[in-house]
Amino acid sequence: MQSRLTIGTRGSPLALAQAHETQARLAQRWGVADSDLADALPIEIIKTSGDRITDRALLEAGGKGLFTKELDEAMADGRIDIAVHSLKDVPVVLPQGFILAAFLEREDPRDAFICRKAQTLSDLPAGAKIGTASARRAAQTLNARPDLEIVLLRGNVGTRLAKIEAGEADATYLAHAGLNRLGLAHEAASVLSPEEMLPAACQGVVAVQCRENDPTAREALAAIEHDDSALAAEAERAFLTALDGSCRTPLAALAEREEGRLRMRAAAYALDGSSAWTRDETIALSDNVRADAAALGARFGDEIREEAGDALETAP
């Protein structure tokens, strides 16, 4: 590994936890001592547009790229060598010259239900306020409970927990992966099964991006890739690509390897939750597992687009 590999990250506690996990995996693989981390694998905090915009949903401000744009610019300028992302925040089309070179082992992909008044969504009274900025979570909530009210709730994990404590909403959702990484799993009233709420595509996966023409960074990152996470990412991002997925469209997907087979569940929703289009299938995997995964995800996306038609074209 080159003598110095600068790691770029957002500055939230969760983003930093993921950056430190990446740093630790690289250090272990390449034998970097703790005393040498600051020199060999320094972490550079980059503030993104998504961090600065807290008063409205991201779909109103430009979508997923708001969490990656400034990191992309820092990498293009040579200020950082790699960028650590929550994969669900990464647009399906990357800027030219960049690649996702590693996917770390996936944490729990499920959503956690955060509430001080009830254990589950079904326990809430009619008219209760669910705080979220996620079109997917809002649509699935309204699909299950059209009698509830959706209110905007944004911010990092700590901010959203504080807003629930302050009564700004009766309940919200957080990725269980994030709670686990921050040691806050106890904050969940319950963890929702995929049958209750299908997670966002790639939720729980940390992706590491680098320049395509940086063979040293690519070699370092290839050494820490987790095969099953990469396989799931291939399927779920192919699904998003087929549906031109962004935070503007309520989409959900979960692919899991099961003893030589791949099970994938995927869904799209009307923004108001009034309609849902779902798929669930298990396929055998050939020697070319990533191609199999991508083909399955793309087929699900194509099928749902054909079935749903103009009903999906509801986001501004």
What does this structure look like?
This protein is α/β, with parallel strands linked by helices. It folds into three domains: 1-105 and 205-225, 3-Layer(aba) Sandwich (D-Maltodextrin-Binding Protein, domain 2), CATH 3.40.190; 111-191, Periplasmic binding protein-like II (D-Maltodextrin-Binding Protein, domain 2, 3-Layer(aba) Sandwich), CATH 3.40.190.10; 226-309, Double Stranded RNA Binding Domain, CATH 3.30.160. Helix content is 33%, strand content 21%. The chain has a five-stranded mixed beta sheet with strand order 2-1-3-10-4, with helices on both faces. Strands 7-6-8-5-9 form a five-stranded mixed beta sheet, sandwiched between helices. A three-stranded antiparallel beta sheet has the order 11-12-13. Helix 9 (227-242) runs parallel beside helix 10. The longest helix has 20 residues, at 289-308.
Features:
alpha/beta, D-Maltodextrin-Binding Protein, domain 2, Double Stranded RNA Binding Domain, 5-stranded mixed sheet
List the SSEs and their pairings.
Layout: E1 7-9, H1 13-30, H2 37-40, E2 43-45, H3 49-52, H4 69-76, E3 82-86, E4 98-103, E5 111-115, E6 129-131, H5 135-144, E7 149-151, H6 157-165, E8 171-175, H7 176-181, E9 190-191, E10 206-211, H8 215-222, H9 227-242, E11 251-258, E12 261-269, E13 276-284, H10 289-308
Summarize the structure.
This protein is of the alpha/beta class and 316 residues long. Helix content is 33%, strand content 21%. The longest helix has 20 residues, at 289-308.
